[in-house]
Amino acid sequence: MHLSPDEMIFWQYGFIKLNGTIVFTWGLMLVLVLGSKLITRKLSIDLQRSHWQNLLEIIVTTINGQIQDLGLAQPEKYLGFLGTLFLFVAAASLCTVIPGYEPPTGSLSTTAALALCVLVAVPLFGIEDQGLRGYLRSYIEPTVVMLPFHLISEVSRTLALAVRLFGNMMSGSMIIAILLTITPFLFPIVMTLLGLLTGMVQAYIFSILAGVYIAAATRVRQLEPPADPKTQQ
Q: Residues 172-205: pLDDT tens digits?
């Protein structure tokens, strides 16, 4: 077992390497795309529906409800982005039961890429909701002195997202690798099941944090009500 899929080199030509992180990431994305195509190819609005459609509706409804609980007024607008983040991280963890598979989230490059997606999506959703001027104005509130602090917070929370997910996912693989060398076979199986649960929790936390950042960027400014002429007299 490798501590990181970066250590698995499938092909190399000079400085160009095709490591496990790239292979497992693209393989996982292919599985998610093909799975979504197969599940959604025969959707039904009748009472009799397939088990896969019922599972899909449960997942979509649950994610949609979680997004709405974050304070986002139109959860359907953010469902594609936040739902994809959750499903990717969760599927990366669930596939660890496959022999020879290493979760790409155990590599810092993958978690950094996911965090950068959040870094780009937050201002895009903020600008779409508030406009460019309204979103940029939030960086200088309540005073222009806060501008560098807001910029630092954008970078620091991106690093925190990447490092948190990487550390939690890699630590599970490291513990299992150590236990395989010093304990019988049964105990690492229990730790693997615990790792699956940890991966699902990390997928939930990562998606929720991304949703919180988007909710903060898309908050609608409450305009003060016009003054009543009678009260001014």
A: 666 666 666 666 555 556 666 766 777 788 888 8
Distances (CA, A) of 115 to 89, 111, 122, 166: 12, 6, 11, 11
Structure tokens at 224: 């003060």
Q: How far apart are CA 126 and CA 217, in angstroms?
A: 5
Q: Closest Cα partner for 71 from 229, 218, 198, 183?
A: 218
Work out whether strand 9-13 and strand 16-19 pair parallel, antiparallel, or are unpaired. Answer: antiparallel
CA 18 distance to own-chain centroid: 24
- State the virtual CA torsion across 118, 120, 126, 131 in degrees, nearest 10: -170
How many other C-beta atoms can be found within 10 angstroms of the C-beta atom of residue 36? Answer: 13
Model's pTM, two decimal places?
0.76
